[in-house]
Design brief:
This protein is of the alpha/beta class. It has one domain: 3-Layer(aba) Sandwich (UDP-N-acetylmuramoyl-L-alanine:D-glutamate ligase), CATH 3.40.1190. It contains eleven helices and eleven strands. The strands form two sheets. It has a nine-stranded mixed β-sheet, with helices on both faces. Strands 6-7 form a two-stranded antiparallel ribbon. Strand 8 and strand 9 form a beta hairpin. Helix 2 packs parallel to helix 10, helix 8 crosses helix 9 and helix 9 packs across helix 10.
């Protein structure tokens, strides 16, 4: 399914504009570079439209939200829409505070998103379904287990229809849907939850995949499989070397550059529904 998608990213070297958070901005940049894409970060309203106009994708991440950058996000999003540049929303911590929640809703009103990616608590908040959060992490009561997988997928389908965006819900199992085609992805490792930045990196590389490939839902699924497989192989490496979380993140970014089409195709654990 994904034979050429990773190859297309490396061939196109898409420029991905990230308006992201200062906790993980360096991780996002390095993940994109390792993958074969090019990152650019600009969040001042005096230049965001100009930077967006030369980019191949825009990623808006509200992880360290402040009032100065909200206007920048809207300006960049509108410019991307005008130029038919795909836009990814990562509503980090939506539901944790009034500012984050209201900003997520404002962005959805002002910008047409190609992909909305978040954990189940964030996605439930975006869909105006009652939810609770633990900071930027999904609440334990919202975890996606097999017992609620179908119900969560159904909710994601409805949200995709109402927003017109591909919805990517990430957790123990990932759900990706454009309301017509739905994928369940079971790649990844629990260690990925023990280091900061894995979700932010995923949103950034999703921007690269959808910029370089036709078919947004398939490209989004390929990005999630890629991230999950890199997490699995990173864990295999630290286990054999008796290393910890810092080394895990290093190996995770390493494998963004080492993963190839055969590894992606061979290790992808994905089910189409």
């Amino acid at each position: 399914m994904f034979t050429d998608m990773l190859k297309n990213v490396r061939k196109a070297h898409p420029l991905v504009h990230n308006i992201t958070n200062y906790v993980t901005v360096n991780d996002c940049a390095n993940a994109l570079l390792s993958l074969g894409a090019s990152p650019i970060m600009a969040d001042d309203e005096e230049e965001v439209e100009e930077i967006t106009a030369i980019s191949n994708a825009l990623v808006i991440n509200i992880g360290t939200l402040n009032s100065r950058t909200i206007k920048s996000m809207i300006l960049a999003g509108r410019k991307a829409n005008q130029l038919s540049i795909p836009v990814v929303l990562d509503p980090v911590g939506a539901g944790a505070s009034k500012l984050r929640t209201e900003t997520a809703f404002c962005l959805l009103e002002e910008v047409k998103f190609s992909v909305i990616r978040g954990n189940i608590s964030e996605i439930k908040t975006v869909g105006r379904l009652s939810s609770s959060t633990r900071g930027v992490d999904a609440d334990i009561s919202d975890s996606i287990g097999d017992d609620i997988l179908d119900k969560t997928a159904e909710f994601a389908v409805h949200l995709s229809r109402s927003t017109g965006a591909v919805i990517a819900v990430t957790g123990a199992a990932d759900i990706v849907t454009d309301s017509i085609k739905t994928y369940i992805i079971r790649n990844g490792h629990p260690m990925m939850r023990r280091v900061s930045g894995t979700g932010c990196m995923l949103s950034s590389i999703t921007g690269a995949f959808i910029a370089a490939n036709a078919g947004t839902v398939d490209a989004c699924a390929a990005a999630l499989c890629t991230m999950g497989i890199c997490g699995e192989t990173a864990y295999e490496n630290i286990s054999s070397r008796v290393e910890g979380t810092s080394s895990f993140k290093t190996h995770l970014i390493d494998f963004m550059g080492l993963i190839d089409d055969n590894m992606l195709e061979g290790r992808a654990r994905i089910e189409a529904r």
